[in-house]
Amino acid sequence: MIDIQYIRDNPEQVAEKAKQKGYPVDVTQLLHIDEERRNVLGIVEGLRQQRNENSDKMKGGKPESELIAQGKTIKAELAAAEERLGNINAQFETLLRSVPNMPLDFVPIGAHEDENVIVKTVGEKPQLEGVPKHDYQLGAERDLIDKERAAKIAGARFAYLKGGLVRLQFGLLQFVMDTLGDEAIIRKLVADNDLQISTKPFTPVLPPAMLRTAPYVASARLNAEEVTYKIEQDDLWLNASAEHTLCTMYWDEILSEDMFPIRYLGYSTSFRREAGTYGKDEEGIFRLHQFDKLEMESFATPETGLQEHKLHIAIQEYLMQQLGLSYQFIQKCTADIGKPNAAGVDLNCWFPGQGKYRETHTADYMTDYQSRDLKIRIRRKGGRIELVHTADATAFAFSRILKAIIENYQTADGRIMIPEILRPYMGGRSEL
Predict the structure, then answer these.
(1) Does residue 225 have a pLDDT over 80?
(2) N or C: which end of the chain has fewer CB within 10 A?
(3) Nearest-angstrom CA–CA distance, 55 and 71
(4) Res 278 pLDDT > 70
(5) What is the pLDDT of residue 283?
């Protein structure tokens, strides 16, 4: 959530920037509730002091009837005031959580994803003979993808991945772990992008695939209506991406400064309802209810948070270039970056079967928006305590990157070649 003091000091700016992101927040109502909350809190604190003073007077002997009567009156007034404060606090937290993070100044202002800015296009589209096939055509022909049988037992938007395609996914997994675990590669990316941050490599993590409501709400990532599955009879949700159980990892903790930056590479099966996408991307494996994903998550100091975000993007570009895939670098506009984000970037990969660039990677920078509600803090060496900054980014969403490889590396005779960088992870094989 955003700092209430910032809202008090900049009410018009907060209202305008929230509107730019597509969140019409009633700042006037929020500040009215905030003032009422502070007034009632003062009353509660005053009554608690009176209660303590009255209690002190009754010590050391038989209390007078007048003090007993005063004690009962104070107790009743305090109970009523605390109940009122609880109700007001609930209203206040709901309103405060409705305020999105403020977009950074360089984020393009736009009301729709169509107003995102294509910063650059990298790589050459493959020169394929004939009409390019979709992933589901090639996958079915080579017995690599079976959605029909998956639909029988699980419904639409599920798939069996088989044979060489499964090996390719785990080859990609090992390739990314080797890359992000190599400090020499991180050092080069830091230098090439003129970043003044640590060259510390990423630690691989297998996080939980479920999380409870309280941390999920505090992360500002719970999207129950459109995305997230709830486990019936339990206070548990299936995570929609690995960063949801990574960004919440240090919930309500104070971390030592010498731990930073904290860089994780999380691998998890993820689940999305994909509500509102009926009839869209149903034939292939681009948009599934269940998919595996490698996600970068960083906890940074306030002064290095934005550079950590830029490192994530540099890593994403490096991975795509190593695979030899053409992509577009998209600076997302205010309406498309998401509620907790201060900035966001997409990489859109070329898909020959569709004849268009589609999103395969997202990089998000949240400043201290998540950590304020999650209460994740850093204790500086001098003793000062501050909120950490968080950033997350896709390494690979496997169903999408597998689709990209299938379509970009297809041959006229229906074979699927393996990118050279991945062949050592595939026992030297050159094709699926």
Answers:
(1) no
(2) N
(3) 8
(4) no
(5) 84
- As a whole number of angstroms, the distance between CA 165 and CA 159 comes to 12
Domains in the chain (CATH in brackets) are 4-97 (1.10.287.40), 113-426 (3.30.930.10)
d(CA 336, CA 344): 8
| Res. 131: pLDDT tops 70 | yes
Give me the count of residues in the chain.
432
Tokens 């294509």 belong to: 118
Write the CB contacts of 429 (distance below 8 Å, at least 6 apart in sequence).
164, 418, 423
**What is the chain's mean pLDDT, rounded?**
94
DSSP-derived pairing of the beta strands 160-161 and 389-397 = unpaired
- 65 pLDDT tier (thresholds 50, 70, 90): confident
pLDDT per position as a tens digit, 17-53: 999 999 989 999 999 999 999 999 999 999 999 999 9
Of 222, 210, 235, nearest to 97 by C-alpha is: 222
DSSP 8-state assignment for residue 62: P
Q: Is the dihedral of CA 129, 134, 137, 138 positive or negative?
A: positive
What lies within 8 Å, CB to CB, of 177 at 6+ separation is 204, 265
Pick the closest to residue 180 from 316, 306, 299, 292 (CA basis). Answer: 316
Residue 426: is its pLDDT beyond 80?
A: yes
CA distance 413 to 378: 57
pLDDT at 279 over 70: no
Structure tokens that stand for 107 in this block: 């984020």
What does the pLDDT look like over 306-331, one tens digit per residue? Answer: 999 999 999 999 999 999 999 999 99
Residues 6+ apart with CB under 8 A from 279: none
Whether residue 285 contacts residue 403, with contact meaning beta carbons closer than 8 Å, is answered with: yes
DSSP string, 371-397: HHHHTEEEE-TTS-EEE-EEEEEEEEE
Q: Hey, which bits of 12-149 come out as E strands?
A: 117-122, 145-146
The β-bridge partners of 230 are: 237
Look up the pTM and report it. 0.93
CA torsion angle for 372, 376, 379, 385 (degrees, to 10)?
A: 20
Q: What contacts 214, CB < 8 A, 6 or more positions away? A: none
**pLDDT of 66 over the 90 cut:** no
Q: Cβ contacts of residue 363 below 8 Å, gap of 6+?
A: 309, 312, 313, 316, 344, 345, 346, 391, 392, 393, 394
